[in-house]
Amino acid sequence: MTPAEMAATIGGGLLSFPVTHFDAEQQFVEKDYREHCAWMLEYELAGLFAAGGTGEFFSLTPEEVGKVVKAAVEETAGKTPVIAGAGYGTAMAVDLARSAEANGADGILLLPNYLMVPGQEGLAAHVEAVCKATSLGVIVYNRDNAVLQPETLEKLCERNANLVGFKDGVGDIELMMQVYARMGDRLTYVGGLPTAETFAPAYLEMGVTTYSSAIFNFVPEFALDFYKAVRARDHATIMAGLRDFVLPYIALRNKGRGYAVSIVKAGMTAIGRTAGPVRTPLIDLKPAELAELSALIARVQPAAPKLAANG
Fold it and tell me: CB of 113 within 8 A of CB of 123?
């Protein structure tokens, strides 16, 4: 899949990040991860992001990232693009991008660099080094300490044909509109704020035709129906989904720092497809919070069968 083909494909539907499965000793469980990817692929999915933020990229060793990406590629078997996470310092990001290509991924999601808050010149050099290191399509994740300004992004696109995607995790409407006005169809735009469903209707008007849905991991039918309502600009269905699930889910997520990932793994446990614990320094939801999440899921997925652990 060429960078342009990858970008066009992911822009046409809903994206998701499978969680990464760990056992009680916090070791990667490839069999369970593969089963989860296969289950997700039973639904409409325009792209699968392996070892992304929801997949606890920040907690994986580089070797483990390679194992997760390879497992996702093999399980997906060309059914949908697999986008691999890369990040940390430039040298590690380059190595991870090359590893992803060697393991058969279709693209790279370049997550924020580690710790430092660079200026635009340094950040551009970091992004360009990754783009030059691979023939895969690269999606930059604009957030936290790695925020590209429109002028910087435009120059990077001029020099790197394989820079094909822009994922926004900032939530600055003015900045997002500046990027879209300047770059237009040169890029595919991905919504990347936590619980992206909340922002999807507004972002659609700025050319952001897709977003990464963490809740797809445990309520795929609801996630897909909500996405289709967003694309159809079905205001009544969108608002019902926000009231019935998304906004109460966010309130629960906000009860603990780092819960944006923890609550997704809790959702897996709630539907009987446990993915194991999160790795420290994250912590799992408390039992009462898990019970609250289970009740919330039942409101939008009342007929879902209680599955045996890991399918």
Answer: yes
Mean pLDDT taken over the chain = 95
- CA distances 208 to 95, 168, 203, 211, 271, Å, are 29, 9, 5, 8, 30
- Token representation of residue 137: 């399509």
CA distances 230 to 145, 204, 226, 239, Å, are 30, 8, 6, 10
Torsions phi, psi for 180 (to 5 deg): -65, -40
pLDDT digits (tens, 9 = 90+) for 188-225: 999 999 899 999 999 999 999 999 999 999 999 999 99
Instruction: List helix spans (H) across the chain.
Output: 3-10, 30-40, 62-76, 90-102, 120-133, 150-159, 173-183, 200-204, 220-231, 235-241, 247-253, 259-270, 287-300
Torsion angle, CA of 89/95/100/102, rounded to 10 degrees? 170
C-alpha distances (whole Å) from 232 to each of 17, 44, 208 are: 23, 16, 14
Looking at residue 302, its pLDDT comes to 62
Using CA of residue 149, residue 155, residue 156, residue 161, what is the dihedral sign? Answer: positive
Residues that are catalytic: 141, 167
Residue 35 · residue 42 · CB < 8 Å: no
Which of these, 219, 246, 217, lies nearest to 230 by C-alpha position? 246
What CA–CA distance (Å, rounded) separates 310 from 188? 34
What pLDDT is recorded for position 33?
Answer: 98
Q: Is 309 helix (H, G, I), strand (E, B) or coil?
A: coil
Q: Compute the distance between CA of residue 300 and CA of residue 197 in angstroms, rounded to an integer.
A: 15
CA distance 223 to 217: 9
Asked if 20 and 55 count as a contact pair (C-beta separation under 8 A), the reply is: yes
